[in-house]
Amino acid sequence: GAGVSQSPSNKVTEKGKDVELRCDPISGHTALYWYRQSLGQGLEFLIYFQGNSAPDKSGLPSDRFSAERTGGSVSTLTIQRTQQEDSAVYLCASSFVGGLANEQFFGPGTRLTVL
Amino acid sequence: GQQLNQSPQSMFIQEGEDVSMNCTSSSIFNTWLWYKQDPGEGPVLLIALYKAGELTSNGRLTAQFGITRKDSFLNISASIPSDVGIYFCAGWNTGTASKLTFGTGTRLQVTL
Predict the structure, then answer these.
(1) Tens of pLDDT along B22-44?
(2) Chain A interface residues facing chain B, Cβ-Cβ under 8 Å?
(3) Sequence-separated (6 or more) residues with CB below 8 Å from residue B59
(4) What is the H or E stretch that residue B24 is in?
(5) Cβ-based contacts of B33 with chain A (< 8 Å)
(6) Bridging pattern class, strands B85-92 and B106-111
(7) Do residues B51 and B67 make contact, with C-beta atoms less than 8 angstroms apart?
(8) Do B99 and A48 touch (CB under 8 A)?
(9) CB-CB under 8 Å, B88 with A101
(10) CB within 8 A of A19, min separation 6: which ones?
């Protein structure tokens, strides 16, 4: 079946602009995660959605970052007033809670470049 | 945020050689996962480990869950060029249901 998809694949923006990144999880997966990966680094957790529960926002680096998940499916990560240090690959993952513990499946990522 | 320590950071090996890499943590995890990331792609799950001492294979890949629950090892036998990429370990605990803690990554390059 279809995997996790993300759009756009690449985004170049000017400092101070807002950006929206989209994630379509695997159908039937109830959990959705956002991570950030800076060049040559590991993955940094940002936010987690599970069903109708309040999201775990503990990884968001500042209040310029927010995310929504509508209808328990598609998610949008929004970065307001982008800064150069926001440049990174933003990865989305989904998993089926109740199955094997936390086997997360990743999308291809959105590469964000802030000029 | 917290990251697991992986070693080596990078390695160059010749095709056909075996590869070993490990991941260590200062805290206990009850699940260990190994991912591979190709350039421009998201990480792909290779192996999942759920029990201390567990040894699990997936083709040429073998991973072990350390008995202290603070480490894990990944071995690749008879490497081939398509093994090139970055390998990440990740740890997870039941009490932290939301997030995986990722390692710093091991970059593998295979020469012919």
Answers:
(1) 999 998 998 999 999 998 889 99
(2) 4, 33, 35, 41-45, 48, 50, 56, 58-59, 91, 93, 97, 100-109
(3) none
(4) strand B19-24
(5) 102-104
(6) antiparallel
(7) no
(8) yes
(9) no
(10) A11, A13, A78, A79, A82, A112
Residue A87 burial by Cβ neighbours in a 10 Å radius (0-12, 13-18, 19+): middle
CB atoms within 10 A of CB A5: 15
Q: Would the pLDDT of B63 be above 80?
A: yes
Task: Give per-residue pLDDT as tens, B78-101.
Answer: 999 999 999 999 998 776 556 788
pLDDT in tens, A24-51: 999 988 889 999 998 877 888 999 998 8
Is A99's pLDDT higher than 90? no
Encoding tokens for residue B16? 């056909």
If you measure CA to CA, which chain A residue comes closest to B94?
A101
A101–B41 CB contact, under 8 Å: no
Q: How far apart are CA B83 and CA B16, in angstroms?
A: 11
